[in-house]
């Protein structure tokens, strides 16, 4: 009986730590990669140069300065 109670108490104290150990992970970490090499090379400062197709990611207002068509 005492072992069952101690086992239950140990489970009650250890279960939250096991659950918390799983927090913070991402199922899709590739979403943190910059969409183009130009902005990634400048330290992911793409908002200032958003004049190409990647402007949708960095600064959608930069689409107004896009010349021509890009895919």
Task: Give the topology, please.
Elements: H1 2-21, H2 37-41, H3 55-58
Q: How would you portray this structure in words?
A:
- The chain is mainly α and 71 residues long.
- It is built from three helices and no strands.
- The longest helix has 20 residues.
- The chain is rod-shaped and about 80 Å long.
- The model has no long low-confidence stretch (mean pLDDT 77).
**Number of DSSP helical runs:** 3
Structural class call reads: mainly alpha
Tell me the β content: under 5%
Mean pLDDT across all residues, rounded? Answer: 77
- The end-to-end span amounts to 70 Å
User: Shape, please?
Assistant: rod-shaped
Helix content: 40-55%
**H/E series, N to C?**
HHH
Radius of gyration, CA atoms, in whole angstroms: 24 Å
Number of strands: 0
Largest sheet: none
Runs in which pLDDT lies below 50 for 5 or more consecutive residues are none
Task: Write a concise keyword list for the protein shown above.
71 residues; mainly alpha
